[in-house]
Write a structure and sequence with these properties.
The protein is built from 13 helices and 3 strands, in the order ααααααααααβααββα. It folds into 2 domains: 216 residues; 91 residues, Reverse transcriptase/Diguanylate cyclase domain (Alpha-Beta Plaits, 2-Layer Sandwich), CATH 3.30.70. It has a 3-stranded antiparallel β-sheet, covered by helices on one side. By secondary structure, the chain is mostly helical. α2 runs antiparallel to α3.
């Protein structure tokens, strides 16, 4: 089967534009996931870069190649920025455009050498891909399943780009690897036409998971203390009781003595700080998902459910020990 490179180039450009527009449209529907905007821009930039560099009558000219390369590298920079924004970090640090600046500075010196141009652009895009994968893996705020798949896809993209440096250094006897030395080939087009939609839909899945996790936390996490609320505790306790199949289950209730008097005397700000501090104590000493806060905002009651009674008492002593003193401020506290 023969694949026409020009036709695949047009197909890829149109596909990337549609996917970029889809990501931007998703961002307009839910602007809390701000990473969708730079990701959508990345797809549109890569489409523009390939169109300028490979299509048109002047696609081999100096301005066309320089513009196409710069747009392509800007797309990778936007990809990396989107990954940082998704993790709640600063999206555009000053060094994020280092690869773009390096490419612009080196282009006049290597314009006549296609192998040098290939090596530089392949290494630069490979580094951006690895940085994006590292960002999603190391600085992930939540363990999202689709985010892990995105890491795999980005590592695969980095490997693909770095492999392109091989034929730039020395041609091999492997036809599909040697084809990567060209600025555009059927092999590269086939890879991008398959890979690009997969990455775009994974980004959309990440955004969907992120929004769903926010709703879940709002429903099951106490906003003041950051620990599971009454609904989450009862849900997990029910699952624990069902799993025990009629065997004994123990429940330990922690009640802060004189909390109402303390709250009325010093004010709600200090009372809230006491609840937050006790929530930190529970998080430190008790297993995850084994405890929760019962009651409303001013409630002082916390509960822990376990299935082995002897395991309660050592942890009970840890929780009852006074926590280290921490300063707190309130208008009525003197």
């Amino acid at each position: 089967m023969t694949l026409d490179p020009v036709t695949l180039n047009v197909a890829f450009v149109l596909l990337a534009v549609v996917l970029g527009a889809l990501l931007v449209f998703a961002w307009t529907l839910n602007r809390k996931v701000r990473a969708l905007l730079p990701w959508g821009a990345a797809f549109c930039l890569i489409a523009a870069g390939f169109a300028v560099a490979n299509l048109g009558r002047s696609h081999n000219s100096y301005p066309a190649l320089l513009t196409g390369n710069v747009l392509g590298l800007l797309s990778y920079a936007a990809l990396y920025a989107g990954c940082r924004i998704f993790n709640g970090r600063k999206g555009f640090p000053p060094l994020i455009l280092t690869g773009v600046v390096l490419r612009i500075a080196a282009f006049p010196l290597i314009y006549e050498r296609q192998d040098y141009r290939l090596i530089l652009v392949a290494l630069t895009t490979g580094v951006y891909s690895l940085l994006s994968a590292r960002e999603l893996w190391r600085h992930a705020r939540h363990p999202l399943a689709s985010q892990r798949i995105a890491v795999v896809l980005l590592i695969f993209l980095a490997i693909f780009n770095i492999i392109r440096t091989w034929p730039g250094i020395s041609l091999t006897s492997i036809a599909w690897i040697d084809a990567l030395a060209n600025r555009w080939s059927s092999e590269m087009a086939l890879f991008l036409v398959v890979y690009t939609p997969a990455l775009a839909f994974i980004f959309l899945s990440m955004a969907k998971e992120h929004v769903e996790l926010g709703y879940k936390q709002a429903a099951f996490i106490d906003p003041l203390t950051g620990i599971p609320n009454r609904r989450a505790f009862l849900h997990r306790a029910t699952r624990l009781i069902d799993a025990r199949e009629g065997k004994p289950v123990s429940c330990l209730i922690f009640d802060l003595d004189n909390f109402k008097t303390f709250n009325d005397h010093y004010g709600h700000e200090v009372g809230d700080r006491v609840l937050m501090l006790f929530g930190e104590v529970l998080t430190k000493h008790l297993p995850e998902k084994s405890y929760g806060r019962l009651g409303a905002r001013s409630s002082r009651r916390f509960c822990r459910c376990v299935w082995r009674t002897p395991r309660i008492w050592p942890r009970r002593s840890d929780v009852r020990s006074p926590p280290p003193a921490k300063p707190c401020w309130a208008p009525r506290l003197k």
